[in-house]
Amino acid sequence: MTQRSINLQIIITAFLLAFILFIFQYSNIDIKVQEYFYNFSTQEWLWSRKEPVSKLLLYTGLKKTLIVFALAVLFTLILFWKKQFVQKYKAGMIIIVLSSIIVPSTVISLKNETNTPCPKNIEHFNGKYPDIKVFDSYPKDFKQEGKIRCWPAGHASAGFALMSLFFFFKKRKNQIIALLFALSIGWIMGSYKMLIGDHFLSHTIITMLIAWFEILIIAKFTQRRAVAKPTQI
User: Which residues share a beta bridge with 39?
Assistant: First the structure.
């Protein structure tokens, strides 16, 4: 992707981010979608967070796998910096490593500050919190014991950070495959958290857009400073 294309993508993604924030802030789409995953009769979510196999595969195991992948790329850069393969693809590898750090860190920082409840927390789904969106304030008579950390979707951020794989490849076909793979991983992680009542749809969409926005910025400055031109694969 050229610098001009990246700049255009940054503008488009920023616009989409603002648009999605507006739409979900002033609508009940999140509630309507989440109702499909909740049984009001039994007061249970469609998928149990205690189910061990899915928790291992879609939460603990997948998260650890992504961490190992990012560390493997980092160590390859450090240990084999002078090797021909690394020299040819170092720009893409740097983008992957930086994205795996910056994207989740940004999302976690936002979660720590936004104080927005999860679906399982709000009164509509038998919780104790009012339905507070990211730009809303809590009612004056509501006593909150401590900050709550649900916006945006933290778990999916590691999956969406894989969209950085797009910049490792140069052939269009491989870029598309890499991007679709990363989106699949991100949405698998995000959907699991929706099914157990941990996140709304908007939380995952916002995380995806934040991830792509940051990856584009990382790619913009990394590619500008790249010395070797990667070989097409």
Answer: 44
pLDDT above 80: residue 132: yes
Dihedrals phi, psi of 146, to nearest 5 degrees: -165, 170
Distance CA 148, CA 187 (A): 23
CA distances to 22, 59, 63, 222 from 104, in Å? 23, 15, 11, 19
| pLDDT tens digit sequence for 145-181 | 888 999 999 999 999 999 999 999 989 999 999 999 9
pTM, to two decimals: 0.93
Burial class (CB in 10 A: 0-12, 13-18, 19+), 227: exposed
Nearest partner of 160 among 183, 194, 188, judged by Cα: 183
- The dihedral built from the CA positions of residue 64, 66, 67 and 72, taken in this order, carries a sign that is positive
Average pLDDT over residues 29-53: 96
Task: Record the tokens describing residue 86, joined without a space.
Answer: 């690394």
Q: Are 190 and 156 in contact (CB under 8 A)?
A: yes
Reduce the DSSP state of residue 118 to 3 states and report it: coil
Residue 90: which residues within 8 A CB-CB, separation 6 or more?
A: 77, 81, 226, 228
Reported as a single tens digit per residue, the pLDDT across 197-228 is: 999 999 999 999 999 999 999 999 998 776 44
Find how far residue 42's CA is from the centre of its chain.
31
Q: Which two tokens stand for residue 169?
A: 């490849």
Q: How many residues are recorded in the chain? A: 233
Distances (CA, A) of 26 to 87, 142, 198, 202: 49, 22, 21, 12
Q: What tens digit of pLDDT does each residue of 104-115 get?
A: 999 999 999 999
